[in-house]
Amino acid sequence: MSVAELPPEATLIDVREQDEWDAGHAPGAVHIPLGELPDRLGDLPEADALYLVCRSGGRSSRAAAFLNANGWEAINVSGGMRSWHAEGKQLIGERAGSAAEVL
């Protein structure tokens, strides 16, 4: 699913690493790095569907496949945070003013 198609109430799971998250992330997103996902399934919010995002879509695609195989409805956000930024969506974080660090 593209960033433009995301429903307003989407539950966003950001699977990027801590430094990427700190550089800027979507408001309301839940941060669970891809490598920690299998051990943090209990940290996933209850939602009809989870929307997975990373920098460009590769890691979030793997995370969505893993979650779908384990009983969740998970949807990859194509283009990731690069597309998020290109769509002019808000970023928050310690260094959110520097889009170059996010991308």
Automatic annotation (TrEMBL):
Pfam families: Rhodanese. Residues 6-93 form the Rhodanese domain. CDD domains: RHOD. Signal peptide: none annotated. SUPFAM superfamilies: Rhodanese/Cell cycle control phosphatase (SSF52821). GO terms for molecular function: transferase activity. Keywords: Transferase. InterPro entries: GlpE_sulfurtransferase (IPR050229), Rhodanese-like_dom (IPR001763), Rhodanese-like_dom_sf (IPR036873). PANTHER family: FAD-DEPENDENT OXIDOREDUCTASE (PTHR43031), PYRIDINE NUCLEOTIDE-DISULPHIDE OXIDOREDUCTASE (PTHR43031:SF1). This is Rhodanese-related sulfurtransferase. It comes from Tamaricihabitans halophyticus.
